[in-house]
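Before relying on records like the one below, remember that each one covers exactly one chain. Contacts with other chains, cofactors or solvent are not represented anywhere in the record.
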Amino acid sequence: MFPPLVRVFVLSIPTRQPLAGYLQDEQWPGSSVRSIEELNDAIRAHSSLAGLTSYNTALERMGPKHDPKAVVDSNGAVHGVDGVHIVDAFIMPNIPSANTNLPTMMLAERIAGRWL
């Protein structure tokens, strides 16, 4: 599925610097996936997570700094990184039960209004 060099790199990302000091746990595909075959199987089994069937939401959610699963605050500022803001569907704290286009536009307008 992937060229050999990409396979080795992808499997080693969580353990390489500078990320190794920041990552607490691997959410997907999980720490049990360590071989190329297991990675390929996980990607095939969860193709929607690879962006093949839908757009991802609520993966890197918005919340206060003390929330261990929150990546950005309510203004889209990335925790621990100065000057970087993100506004996208993947910062929504919960997955909407409808198409994500309108909620994403509303989120972007609301956060952009705070910046201006």
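Residues 101-115 form the longest helix (15 residues).
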